[in-house]
Amino acid sequence: MHMTIWWGYDIGDFLFYGFKVTTIGALIGICFGVAALAFLFEYLKLLQAQQRHRQLSIKAKQLRTICPSESATLLDESQRGPKITFINRVGFPFIDGLLWLTSFNLG
């Protein structure tokens, strides 16, 4: 690793011992690879935000049905909330954990 400004392309080992960058093409490939990893990291953060939004919207719908307006009857069957499926109960936390683990390891 050079400690001053250096304009060469032979940077030697990159990230791992034995992964040598000695040509201009390899240096350009490394630049594109790092940019692709950065893009993937930001995309995973976007997917996490969308996942949390979906979970919160389902919870909000459930709360609206649990606490309807003051004039609603308490035992009215038409006020049933959204059905909680297996995907909502198990899939959302699994996907959320998988996204977090992937973005944590990539970051």
Folded structure, characterized:
This protein is mainly alpha-helical. The protein has one domain (12-106). It has helices at 24-66, 86-106, and strands spanning 12-14, 16-21. It has a two-stranded antiparallel ribbon. Helix 1 packs antiparallel against helix 2 (86-106). The two termini are 22 Å apart. The model has no long low-confidence stretch (mean pLDDT 78).
C-alpha termini separation: 22 Å
Biggest sheet descriptor: 2 strands, antiparallel
Uncertain residue segments: none
Strand content: 5-15%
**Run of helices and strands:** EEHH
Separate helix tally:
2
Number of domains: 1
Q: What structural category characterises the helix and strand content?
A: mainly alpha
Percentage of residues assigned to helices = 55-70%
Shape: rod-shaped
Let me know the number of strands: 2
Q: Reading side by side through the largest sheet, how are the strands ordered?
A: 1-2
Mean pLDDT: 78
Report the radius of gyration as a whole number of Å: 25 Å
Outline of the structure:
The protein has 107 residues and is mostly helical. It has helices at residues 24-66, 86-106, and strands at 12-14, 16-21. Strand 1 and strand 2 form a beta hairpin.
Looking at this protein, list some descriptive labels.
107 residues; mainly alpha; two-stranded antiparallel ribbon; 60% helix; 8% strand; rod-shaped
Topology overview:
Blueprint: E1 12-14, E2 16-21, H1 24-66, H2 86-106
Antiparallel strand pairs: 1-2
GO molecular function: copper ion transmembrane transporter activity
Organism: Popillia japonica
GO cellular component, one term: membrane
